[in-house]
């Protein structure tokens, strides 16, 4: 009995329980009194106070999601663990975007703004920090080129269809897909993203695992055979500890769900406050998308930088590139479907400035990851490009 209690305390410590109770307490309070606070009589002071409370609550919940997903990542191994973390975080982003779309007023570009903001934050700021900090600590860091290039291929394909194409087709006009185009493209994106996930988890998962330094098998394309032997050994180990692992995985999955649900329930209120704040302060509309991206991806970004500092650069790539592939693969279909069901206008076409930044990011990413090792100067280039993005938000 004592051992069971100790095991449960290790899986579900007091700190996690306090965090879970505090987050749900805020949810209950907003569900009971939120409508009265955020009605027509809402003032700037109430909006600011509400925003800070919601921001803290959502960030705490997001960190809780990352913690549990990270634990599951270590239990399940790559690439399953990273996929759980990435899909959990991206699900939060999709929920927040849908909440903004369904909130008061028209926000036709919120999907595009969020995807583009995520790209600039993940593909430039976070990747730049990972390359630079990892390089300063370890010098050149190794990663699996084939797996990394497959991520970039998906980014080019999905990003090109979702963000570049709308500006160069007739569609419904002004960067908007027609209903038929929206339905068919949603199907294509889901199909392609689903196939990519399936291959990543099954036949080609060896392409997303950190290569062993100096391994001749990797250099001569025999990694697949080595990976199979390693997988068999791992399976044997898992069978030996299956009861404990299964119980822990179930508990952590429930805690993960318990952290995601508050974000879902608070997302609409957050959308109302953000929309009010941007209009009241006369700020650039793109800030709504940037804010969502920062709120959602800060915990995962910290995890990626930690991975680079632990000399696990492939994990950092899986987190960053996987996050953006999932963002595009899930956000585009979700936003298009919400638009079709609710009749809301959805605009995915980028502005000329965003298009140039998008293309520079893709080209720079390809050059960065064409080799087998990182180069710290490339990290500096990504960081400067992110700084240009921030400059152009406020001074276009």
Quick overview:
This protein is mainly α and 396 residues long.
Describe the structure.
With 396 residues, the protein is mostly helical. The protein is built from 14 helices and no strands. The protein has helices at residues 2-11, 14-37, 44-76, 80-102, 110-138, 145-164, 179-201, 216-219, 223-240, 242-280, 286-309, 313-342, 352-368, 376-394. α3 (44-76) runs antiparallel to α4 and α5 packs antiparallel against α14 (376-394). The radius of gyration is 22 Å and the shape is globular. 43% of the residues are buried. Mean pLDDT is 81; it is low at 215-228 and 234-244.
DSSP, total strands: 0
Q: State the shape.
A: globular
The SSE string, one letter per element, is HHHHHHHHHHHHHH
Largest sheet: none
Structural class: mainly alpha
Could you estimate the helical fraction of the residues in percent? over 70%
> Segments where pLDDT lies below 50 for 5+ residues?
215-228, 234-244
Individual helix count: 14
Please state the average pLDDT score. 81
Kindly provide the radius of gyration, computed on alpha-carbon positions and rounded to a whole number of angstroms. Answer: 22 Å
How large a portion of the residues is in β-strands, by DSSP E? under 5%
Which short descriptors sum up this protein?
single chain, 396 residues, mainly alpha, globular
């Amino acid at each position: 009995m004592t051992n069971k209690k100790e095991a449960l305390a290790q899986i579900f410590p007091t700190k996690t329980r306090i965090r879970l109770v505090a987050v749900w307490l805020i949810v209950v309070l907003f569900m009971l009194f939120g409508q009265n606070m955020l009605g027509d009589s809402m003032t700037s002071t109430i909006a600011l106070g509400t925003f800070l409370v919601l921001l803290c609550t959502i960030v705490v919940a997001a960190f809780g999601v990352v913690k549990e997903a990270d634990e599951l990542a270590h239990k399940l191994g790559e690439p399953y663990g990273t996929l759980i973390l990435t899909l959990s975080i991206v699900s939060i982003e999709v929920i927040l975007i849908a909440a903004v779309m369904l909130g008061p007023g028209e926000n036709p570009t919120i999907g595009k703004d969020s995807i583009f903001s995520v790209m600039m934050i993940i593909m430039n700021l976070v990747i730049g920090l990972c390359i630079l900090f990892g390089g300063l600590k370890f010098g050149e860091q190794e990663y699996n080129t084939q797996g990394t290039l497959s991520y970039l291929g998906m980014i080019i394909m999905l990003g090109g269809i979702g963000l570049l194409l709308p500006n160069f087709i007739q569609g419904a006009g002004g960067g908007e897909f027609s209903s038929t185009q929206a339905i068919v493209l949603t199907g294509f994106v889901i199909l392609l993203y689903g196939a990519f996930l399936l291959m990543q988890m099954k036949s080609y998962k060896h392409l997303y695992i950190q290569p062993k330094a100096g391994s001749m098998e990797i250099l001569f394309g025999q990694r697949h055979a080595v990976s199979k032997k390693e997988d068999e050994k791992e399976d044997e180990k898992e069978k030996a500890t299956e009861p404990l692992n299964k119980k822990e995985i179930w508990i952590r999955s429930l805690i993960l769900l318990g952290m995601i649900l508050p974000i879902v329930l608070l997302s609409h209120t957050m959308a109302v406050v953000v929309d009010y704040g941007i209009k009241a302060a006369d700020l650039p509309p793109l800030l709504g998308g940037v804010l969502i991206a920062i709120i959602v991806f800060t915990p995962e970004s910290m995890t990626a930088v930690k991975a680079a500092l632990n000399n696990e650069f492939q994990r950092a790539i899986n987190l960053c590139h996987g996050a953006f592939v999932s963002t595009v693969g899930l956000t585009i279909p979700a936003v298009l479907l919400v638009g079709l069901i609710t009749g809301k206008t959805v605009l995915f076409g980028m502005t000329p400035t965003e298009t140039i930044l998008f293309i520079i990011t893709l080209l720079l990413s390809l050059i960065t990851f064409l080799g087998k090792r990182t180069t710290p100067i490339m990290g500096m280039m990504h960081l400067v490009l992110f700084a240009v993005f921030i400059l152009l938000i406020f001074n276009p």
